Amino acid sequence: MKSQFFKDVYEVVKLIPKGRVTSYGSIAKYLGTTKSARVVGWAMNNSHVLKGIPAHRVVNRIGLLTGKNHFSSPNKMEELLNNEGIKVKDDRIKNFKKLFWEPINELDL
Q: How many domains does the chain divide into?
């Protein structure tokens, strides 16, 4: 059984535009729980069995693919990002600041 918080996280993640990324902390901040970035990470780790959750678009605050080990293969997260035109080098998003999507600025509060 998923918590309401996890469901809220998934709703935000579904809104991340193709070709953009955001961070665990930005999702937590948007949901009003600034210090809950780790819980957002746990939600993402549990999202891989769900359809329609683009978990590959969520990375850590400096653009590292910290969730890659929760995908079906160690390279799957990078492959999904590459398919959207996002370049990755050494497990880190290139042009991270340019590609970053901030939900607090994009969504109605």
A: 1
Using a cut of 0.85, tell me whether the model's pTM lies above it: yes
Digit-coded pLDDT (tens) for 82-100: 999 999 999 999 999 999 9
Which DSSP state fits 21?
B
Sign, Cα dihedral of 21, 23, 27, 30: negative
CB burial string 68-95: b at 16+ within 10 A, e below: beebeeeeebbeebeeeebebeeeebee
Q: Whole domain around residue 64: which residue ranges? A: 4-103
Give, as one character, the DSSP assignment of residue 84.
Answer: T
Cβ(93)–Cβ(16) below 8 Å: no
On whether residue 109 sits in a domain, the answer given is no
Q: Where residue 12 sits, what CATH number does that domain have?
A: 1.10.10.10
